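Chain A, query sequence.
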Amino acid sequence: MLQDRDIVYFSCLDWEPGRARPQHIALELAAANRVLYVEPMISLASIVERLIRQEHTRSLMPRVRQIHNGLFLYTPPSFLPFSLRSESLNSINKSLLVRCIRNAIGKLGFRRPIVAVSHPSHHEVVGRFDEEFSFYDCMDHYTLLPDRRANPVVLAAMERKLVKKADLVFVTSEALHRGQDGEGQEGNGSKWVLVRNGVDLNHFESDGCRLGEPDQELAGIPRPIVGYIGCIGSWFDGDAIAFLDAARPDLSLVLVGPALDKATTRKLRSCGNVYLLGPKPYQELPRYLDAFAVCLIPFQVNELTRAVNPVKLYEYLATGKPVVAAELDEITRYRDLVSFYATKEDLVRQVERALREQDPDVARLRVQVAGENTWRRRVEEMGGALASYLARGSDGNAIRNDGSFERS
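Chain A, predicted structure.
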């Protein structure tokens, strides 16, 4: 584990309302270090758009606040729009952000921090803080994500610059580890390190204390419930869900999460037994999972999703409940624990099979596997890779026998 370090984590996600890899990594790092979590820059137009849609927004005033032991949150001021379409605008915005963060870490007393970044546009901040070292925490194939704000060509150029600048690159899937062009990353030596996603086991593991007390929103939904927690984007297989709805009208299909793709959302709203509940706070997700009889990962299989290591997989496994998923590369490693479908007809059959499952040994094995994939373990993997990097550098850092490292 990293210990007694000052870390600045430039995230691509706001701290609230959800909880994904950047927030979990920051929380685990803060257990033994001081961490400044930097929320992404957004323009004033984006803030207004959030207000109109009545979505989560944040303060317009830049500020630093402590949100946990060892963990500080920085909310930047609004910046110029279109920075994901123009290298020049991104450079201007990031230069202003660097000035803000230098001021923030000066007040916090950070010195020679570790700089962690989670998006290609952050390449501009690497090397600007006299940092001890830097790493890129890559969790998606960013150039393939459907983002109307971004130009994929510009984004790809940014990522190439970031990979060249960063000391290490952590990736979440085998597809990302092999390289986005399919030719591998051997030329980068050990710079590329596979560290998959994980789970907060204590948060999701069901011990029965929540069962029998469903949220009022769930109380009126007929059982059994087949459910999904996550974003409903263009990668979500709305056709498969509509087919399942028509084939099994006795089931309630509950989808918890933000609806990002309008066409998919319209299709789902026309279904008779699909319940779109919208996004829920991270703290409430276990109560929804408690009500599910079967957990779904209904993704289209394409180049984008082949590179995805779904956080929801580990969260589902932590409940011990049956999981039915599309045949994604990162999930097929768990064939003994997950039922897979290749066609819409397969989906119906696998859901029916999962509803009949009554094997407590399989349920216990799912929880056990989730326990082997915690966020704490992921940060330990990162720490081991960073320790090896420092050992190669011979720059005054001592490697301890337990694989962790401290300032010498």
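Residues 135 and 166 are 5 Å apart (CA to CA). The first helix runs from residue 21 to 29.
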